[in-house]
Amino acid sequence: MAKRVVITGMGVLSPIGNDIPTFWNHLIQGQSGVGPVTQFDASDFSTRIAAEVKDFNPLDYMERKEARKMDRFVQFGVVASQMALKDAGLDIEREDPDRVGVYIGSGIGGLKTWEEQHKIYLKRGPNRVSPFFIPMMIANMAAGQVSISTGAKGPNSAAISACATGTHSIGDATEILRRGDADAMIAGGTEATITPMAFAGFCANKAMTTRNDEPEKASRPFDKERDGFVMGEGAGVLILETLEHAQARGANIIAEVAGYGMSGDAYHLTSPSPDGEGPARAMKRAVEDSGLELEQIGYINAHGTSTPLNEKYETMAIKSAFGEHAYRLAVSSTKSMMGHLLGASGGVEAIATALALKEGILPPTINYEHPDPDCDLDCVPNEARRTSVQAALSNSFGFGGHNATIVLKKYDGAD
């Protein structure tokens, strides 16, 4: 029989807070983390705003020698994992390290390192490229460095599925625990791609907003005047444990990971499948996997990127998956405040969803000013809502047609 999996700790670095209390307070207050780009000169770009992690100094958490060997996305992943372990009260030195694993992904990896080392190569030649270039840049290195820094020797892997990465990582880690291959997993996503080349690429395919004069209003999921996403950065990491392991050590249980579903669009490089057919299958599979009825789902943390096609098709997907119950669901996009954290979004949004269940407060979709007839669901507009929800979905969909959904539910205290 598959083991039950629960969340016992969480760590976050985000555009709206670098610890769980700050992150949650800003989320339910509807505070935007979007502003002008500060990490490089964006004056020549059509998009000049981003949702940056603020006041982050890796030397507050690690030695300079170690920090210099890590790209920013790896630093984020290591720090968020340390936070999550502390929150969970999980001391790996007191555990069997072979039974504690890591599953942390990144959609793009060390693009900042790639750009910096490429400049050195062009200017000074191949012999001056850093010997740490490859291990700093590759997208699995957050998982590798977390294992090294924590001593976790169990299953170790990294999902790389664009914007579905964080949710795939949590879902895959859950499956590892369900089948008994580990007692605890450090799982989530991390990303740091606010760089010139990333901006150049996304500006070229016209995926990002050009509402530069109103940064805090630029990310507006489900609003009729949405014109593209705001790039964000950060990391969201959860400590997942089998229920029996968490109970045996007296851990504080935040929520339960009840279901996981994924699918492929088999359609297009960047556009979602027509009518949201692929995401609908992922949601249906996740709910079926949870053993819950559709009517027991009360909230969906939407992918909600603030792009014209995503919300239209995600709305259609929710209707396809839930039928008439879709109109009784609350659906909000926390990307309205944080921007799109790409591979980290699923990890951070899973944290938001778990807190929504635990605290009985649904985060809002801010900047909802112009109703879109194509997006006619309850998107919790502009203000957080106090309500008791027993189970929720978190959706993540990525370029290439990768779709991932997890179902979280309140922990009922029953074995």
From TrEMBL:
GO molecular function annotations of the record: 3-oxoacyl-[acyl-carrier-protein] synthase activity
Top-level enzyme category: transferase
Residues annotated as the enzyme's active site: 163
This enzyme's EC code(s): 2.3.1.179
Keywords, in A-Z order: Acyltransferase, Fatty acid biosynthesis, Fatty acid metabolism, Lipid biosynthesis, Lipid metabolism, Transferase
GO biological process: fatty acid biosynthetic process
Stored InterPro entries: 3-oxoacyl-ACP_synth-2, Beta-ketoacyl_synthase, Ketoacyl_synth_AS, Ketoacyl_synth_C, Ketoacyl_synth_N, PKS_Beta-ketoAc_synthase_dom, Thiolase-like
Pathway where it operates: Lipid metabolism; fatty acid biosynthesis
Catalysed reaction equations from the record: (9Z)-hexadecenoyl-[ACP] + malonyl-[ACP] + H(+) = 3-oxo-(11Z)-octadecenoyl-[ACP] + holo-[ACP] + CO2; a fatty acyl-[ACP] + malonyl-[ACP] + H(+) = a 3-oxoacyl-[ACP] + holo-[ACP] + CO2
Gene Ontology CC entries for this record: cytosol
Family of this protein: Belongs to the thiolase-like superfamily. Beta-ketoacyl-ACP synthases family.
Protein name as catalogued: 3-oxoacyl-[acyl-carrier-protein] synthase 2
Gene: fabF
